[in-house]
């Protein structure tokens, strides 16, 4: 609660826990944004999905079976259960796709992007052909470019918006 002093400045009372009975404590709920030993000492996971040895690296929760495209997560983002590393075949069904008409990084405009629901796996963002753009429900296979982007087979090799 804030209070105004006689000089007109605002002060605040110390934060209290959920019960209002004492100072706020670190929660025991997993939180990868807090670094340090007190909060688990966990590093933030690599955010870009990776295809290694022909498989999309990932993880699956041992408790709820939720798939993730990040193999280095320390727990399930849904139920906080334990996860096991696994690999997914890099193909699936287009959930949604769009054409981007502005250059972004090394990708010259226009280029296509699509969310792909990987077979029995997570949903990932993949560079796709923009002409013709795949439609929802189309099957797409993908791999990884030399720069680490996921791209539909035939995209990222000097065609379809890639400046190489």
TrEMBL record:
Domain ChsH2 C-terminal OB-fold: 90-134
Comp. bias regions, Gly residues: 155-164
Region (Disordered): 1-43, 143-164
Biased composition (Basic and acidic residues): 26-36
InterPro entries to which the protein is assigned, alphabetical: ChsH2_C (IPR002878), NA-bd_OB-fold (IPR012340)
Residues annotated as transmembrane: none
Stretches with biased composition (Polar residues): 1-14
Matches recorded under Pfam families: OB_ChsH2_C
Name assigned to this protein: ChsH2 C-terminal OB-fold domain-containing protein
Organism in which the protein naturally occurs: Gordonia soli NBRC 108243
């Amino acid at each position: 609660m804030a209070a105004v002093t006689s000089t007109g400045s605002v002060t605040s009372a110390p934060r209290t826990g959920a019960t209002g009975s004492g100072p706020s404590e670190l929660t025991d709920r997993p939180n990868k944004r807090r670094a340090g030993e007190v909060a688990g000492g966990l590093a933030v996971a690599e955010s870009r999905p990776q295809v290694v040895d022909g498989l999309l690296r990932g993880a699956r929760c041992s408790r709820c079976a939720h798939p993730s495209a990040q193999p280095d997560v320390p727990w399930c983002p849904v139920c906080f259960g334990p996860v096991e590393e696994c690999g997914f075949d890099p193909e699936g069904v287009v959930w949604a796709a769009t054409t981007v008409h502005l250059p972004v990084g090394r990708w010259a405009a226009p280029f296509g992007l699509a969310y792909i629901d990987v077979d029995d796996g997570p949903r990932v963002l993949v560079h796709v052909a923009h002409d013709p753009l795949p439609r929802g429900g189309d099957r797409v296979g993908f791999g990884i470019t030399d720069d680490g982007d996921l791209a539909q087979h035939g995209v990222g090799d000097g065609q379809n918006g890639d400046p190489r």
